[in-house]
Amino acid sequence: MEKKKEAGDSSNTEPSSFKLLASFPSGLSPSQVSVAFSDAYDRIPHSDITLENTIPEIWDQRSLNNKSLFNGNKFRYGGHVLHTGGESGSEPHVCLHLGLTDYRTFVGTNLSPLWERFLVSSEDDSVLCQHTSSPLGNGAVVETIDSKILVLQRSNNVGEFPGYFVFPGGHPEPQEVGITSRQYAKELTESINIKVSQEMFDSIVREVVEEIGVPASSLSIPAFIGISRRDLNVRPTAFFFIKCNLDSKEVQQFYFSALDGYESTKLYTVPMIELENMASRMPGCHRGGFALYKLMVDTRKIT
């Protein structure tokens, strides 16, 4: 089956190719994940003014063609620092570096036909993507009580990858923790880092509840398993592992009344072997999520 390219893309980059930016096969709990939210991790405008001017032009054109587009704020991924615990025996800890961006800039940089021109030649991911919006998405590998994984098939109405297989997910939302602008964010106290860190975990539960329809009470506390970035449009996504105490048939019944069910056309509940076959028809960031899940499963077998 021929892979579809994202609207507006002119690159030969494979939609399913990806890079793992961080991997935590044992899964990190909320106490092991912190956030440094700062304008130091905001996007740096490109020195090419002509290229910068294409951002509002592309947004205006897209808005004309799609009246439902809304320019909301998003958290921008600016890298991370891992503390392994070392010889002290303490548990590993990761600090996510997050800035602020918006959907308009995402459309005008990452989703632009000119997206590769915004990149900087560097092995350092934060430098490579310093001129792109790169909002941090999220995804959940949800495992039912009968050991099936939940996979959605995207509808043909969505803006990115219509018809592709994906894990449930979306974005952590700045407005959920009271961040409405960069200026307002500067006025907040250091407690905002704690709130943003909690939003990383709260948001993925919300996404699963809204897209699958299951009650939040049926879901375990998410375990953070890593970050993947699809090569196409350098789109980063944080992935979590969640256990659901319902079986696959019960989950299917809840799916019929899912709040965001319009974003997908079908819910699959599949074993690992079938998930392996579906992964080739996932966007790169979600295929990376599957790779993170496999690493977690392999770690389970060893321990």
From TrEMBL:
User: Which regions span the lipid bilayer?
Assistant: none
Keyword terms: Hydrolase, Magnesium, Metal-binding
Cofactors per UniProt?
A: Mg(2+)
Q: Which Gene3D superfamilies match?
A: Nucleoside Triphosphate Pyrophosphohydrolase (3.90.79.10)
Specify the superkingdom. Answer: Eukaryota
The GO terms describing molecular function are: GDP-mannose hydrolase activity; metal ion binding
What residue stretches are annotated with the Nudix hydrolase domain? 133-298
Q: Which CDD domains match?
A: NUDIX_Hydrolase
Protein's name in the database: Nudix hydrolase-like protein
Q: Which organism is it from?
A: Medicago truncatula (Barrel medic)
Q: What is the lineage of its organism?
A: Eukaryota, Viridiplantae, Streptophyta, Embryophyta, Tracheophyta
